[in-house]
Amino acid sequence: MSQLGDLIKQIIKPLLKDQVTIGIGKSVDKDAQTAVVTPVERGADFLDVRLRSTLDDTDTGVIIYPVIGSRVMVGIIHNDQSQAFIAQFSEFESLQVHRKDDDQTVFKMLLNADGTLNVDATEWTFNDGLNGGLINLPAMKIELAKITAFIKALTTAWQGAIPTPQDGGAAHVINHVF
Questions:
Q1: How far apart are CA 158 and CA 153, in angstroms?
Q2: Furthest C-alpha separation in the chain
Q3: pLDDT over 70, % of the chain
Q4: Is a pLDDT exceeding 50 seen at residue 10?
């Protein structure tokens, strides 16, 4: 049975097409949301490789723009190389997340490889919405003033302390710290 199986594999294997291949990003067209990818192992460049697997022409969803020259994994839909898309990225130039509702942008985020982040949103919520998501500056100033006053009082007491002879400073510590 194993000889028959091996024979069948030898006959069928050349007829099977790769569904996934590794390549190098050669160029990126951000307007068309496509890339040209050169396969690592063999074959001609993949042209018009989608940057995401969806078929619509919108710019919504998650779009990752690879670094030119970086490795990418290309997926092929239904054995049709004209339906190729980038499935995985080794490095990215930027990452875009875009959400629309009734043709109006609800949220758009662009993260660049240099660490810059641009966000356009109709509403922001930080820290579960407490204090508008920001620090409570008046309360923080009050607490900071208390801490500052305590440190000043402690410093004054320590500097003005008179050590008791022959106790190794124990009276000084007990009287002024505790």
A1: 9
A2: 101
A3: 80
A4: yes
Q: Which residue has the tokens 């919108």?
A: 58
Sheet holding 92-101, edge to edge: 61-66, 92-101, 104-112, 117-121
Residue 84 burial class via C-beta count within 10 angstroms: exposed 0-12, middle 13-18, buried 19 and up: buried
User: What are the residue ranges spanned by the domains of the chain?
Assistant: 2-123, 129-176
Do the beta carbons of residue 35 and residue 27 sit within 8 Å? yes
- How confident is the model at residue 11, as a pLDDT? 85
Cα–Cα distance for residue pair 178/157, rounded to 1 Å: 12
DSSP, residue by residue, 23-77: EEEEEEETTTTEEEEEESSSSSPEEEEESSS--SS---EEEEEEPTT-EEEEEEE
Residue length of the chain: 178
The residues near 51 (Cβ < 8 Å, ≥ 6 apart) are 28, 33, 34, 35, 63, 64, 65, 66, 85, 86
DSSP SS3 for 4: helix
Q: What residues form DSSP beta bridges with 36?
A: 27
pLDDT tens sequence across 91-146: 989 988 888 777 777 788 888 888 888 888 777 666 666 766 677 778 889 999 99
Q: What is the mean pLDDT of residues 67-74?
A: 94
